[in-house]
Amino acid sequence: MDLSITSETRGEATVVHVGGEIDVYTAPVLREHLDEHISQGRHHLVVDLEGVSFMASTGLGVLVGRLKLVRATNGTMRLVCSNERILNVFSITGLDKVFHIFPSVDDALAATAATA
Asked: N or C: which end of the chain has fewer CB within 10 A?
């Protein structure tokens, strides 16, 4: 179970830095962490996947579910990823059309600030 999660508040957004592997064992940990922020009224999330080396479909499911939750409250979820292997997972599943994916946290924060 190799997953690390840290968070920081940057303006209106909560940046969640994720590292390691998101699979059937670690996806629930990520879901709980994101749900905690959402339940605290933090509806503008930037999920930094730069440190993620592997993502299974269960991880995608967690992200899609949380996206639906924040959208229901007029919130946003931006992803940060430049890893071709992880980006390929989003591309193959068509989720690159659903999520706003940025190459850096600063880029994602700028887009969030423009809509928050």
From this structure: N
- Its pTM stands at 0.95
The answer to whether residues 46 and 109 touch, using CB atoms and an 8 Å cutoff, is: yes
Instruction: State the CATH number of the domain containing residue 98.
Output: 3.30.750.24
What would the pLDDT profile of 58-88 be if each residue is shown by its tens digit? 999 999 999 999 999 999 999 999 999 999 9
Which residues does the chain have with pLDDT short of 50?
none
- Starting at the earlier edge strand, list the strands of the sheet with 13-22: 3-10, 13-22, 44-55, 76-80, 100-102
C-alpha torsion 64→84→113→33, nearest 10: 40
Q: How does DSSP classify residue 96?
A: G
Can you tell me which residue has the tokens 């749900």?
Answer: 35
pLDDT score of 112: 81
DSSP 8-state symbol, 104: S
The total of structural domains in the chain comes to 1
| Cα–Cα separations (whole angstroms), residue 101 to 32, 35, 49, 84, 87 | 22, 20, 10, 12, 9
